[in-house]
Amino acid sequence: MALFGVFATHSPESCPLNNKQSKDTMIMIDDKIKSITEKFHVRKIHGFYMSVLEHEWVIIVEADSPHEIEAMCIEAGISAFNTVKIVPLSNFDAVVKKVKGG
């Protein structure tokens, strides 16, 4: 199990604040993501944040595989109007320990 950052960005034109189809999809995402996390072996969503003016979402998830996160983003509708980047994350303290040779 690993920690991943999911970074989803969209254009101002496809923003749910400006686009009816994206708005409808976003409303659906809330319920859908809660019901499918187990299916895709997403153990926990640690945080789901949005920067409205940057048109970017940041989701911190604990999961088995980035491929399953990808599938979850497709099924939930996140990728319907966002470009999605999935990045493995490491705890700062663990990295410092590696740097120190431990």
Q: Your description of this structure?
A:
The relative contact order is 0.27. The radius of gyration is 15 Å and the shape is globular. The protein is of the alpha+beta class and 102 residues long. It is built from 3 helices and 4 strands; from the N terminus they run βαββαβα. It has a 4-stranded antiparallel β-sheet, covered by helices on one side. The chain has one domain (2-99): 2-Layer Sandwich (Alpha-Beta Plaits).
What are the SSEs and their pairings?
Layout: E1 2-9, H1 20-36, E2 42-51, E3 56-63, H2 66-76, E4 83-89, H3 92-99
Helix pairs in contact: 1-2
| Order of H and E elements | EHEEHEH
CATH superfamily, by name, is: Dimeric alpha+beta barrel
Strand adjacency order, main sheet = 2-3-1-4
Find the count of extended strands (DSSP E, 2+ residues): 4
Terminus-to-terminus distance: 21 Å
The CATH topology: Alpha-Beta Plaits
Helix content: 25-40%
Structural class: alpha+beta
- DSSP helical segment count: 3
Largest sheet: 4 strands, antiparallel
Q: What is the mean predicted local confidence, pLDDT?
A: 95
**Content of β-strand:** 25-35%
Going by CATH, the architecture would be 2-Layer Sandwich
Any idea how many domains? 1
Organism: Candidatus Nitrososphaera evergladensis SR1
Protein name: GYD domain-containing protein
